[in-house]
Amino acid sequence: MPIHQQPAAFPNTAVQPQAFPSANVQPVSLYNGGSEIYGQGEKAGALYQIEFGAVRIYRLLADGRRQISAFHLAGEVFGFESDSTHHFFSEAICATGIRVIRPTQGADLSHQLLPLALQGLVRAQEHLLVLGRQSALERIAAFLLDMAERQGGMETFDLPMSRTDIGDYLGLTIETVSRIISQLKAKGIIRLKSLRTIQILKPDTLRDLSE
Question: Averaged over 74-103, what is the pLDDT?
Fold first, then answer.
């Protein structure tokens, strides 16, 4: 049963290769979990669509810590940059199929790219709000709802990322992430069908906790 009540402003629908008629859309390449897709400081210019799997976008801080800025799931496009250089690393979380989209010289893809760029901007702004204003419980609740919405809004969904990844994304320790998830389970708000599969039993309660 779907858990969302209102349609998203930018629905998460897979972008088909034919949506970029003025681009060189390459065949799907397979990346094993932990494989780098592009590195910080490398030349940008292409876009990347996830056929299956998941990707994390991150930066290494001066003290060696990792800050994850975004997760991307199947059907989503990433790799947007404001200039010709990548400012973050991108890495496959699990076995992931990536289709590289390279605009041909002189091609105008603004019509196709604008909705995707705006969707990424909205998610980045929501992520900042989560980091800046919410407690650990609120952050985890908002994260689970976001993951559910982006996988079709169903009550049962997968978390391809580890608890460590979630912590690095939400600014929490792995111990805090595990403790909050266990609390939500104990209260009957969620069910852990496996280590990476979550079932939301009380979506309204979870939504109240996220606000």
Answer: 90
Which class in CATH covers the domain with range 17-123?
mainly beta
Side by side, which strands form the sheet with 96-103? 23-31, 96-103, 47-52, 77-78
Q: Where are the domains of the chain?
A: 17-123, 135-210
Name, in order, each residue with C-beta under 8 angstroms of 111's C-beta and a sequence gap of 6 or more. none
**Annotation: CATH topology of 135-210:** Arc Repressor Mutant, subunit A (1.10.10)
Name which residue leads in pLDDT, 51 or 6: 51
Q: Which amino acid is at 158?
A: D
In angstroms, rounded to a whole number, what is the distance separating the alpha carbons of residues 210 and 140?
8
Rounded CA-CA distance 22/102 in Å is 9
Q: What is the pLDDT of residues 129-161, one digit of tens each?
A: 777 767 899 999 999 999 999 998 889 999 999
190, β-bridge pairs = 200
Per the CB < 8 A criterion, the answer to whether 58 and 89 are in contact is: yes
Q: Is the dihedral of CA 140, 143, 149, 154 positive or negative?
A: negative
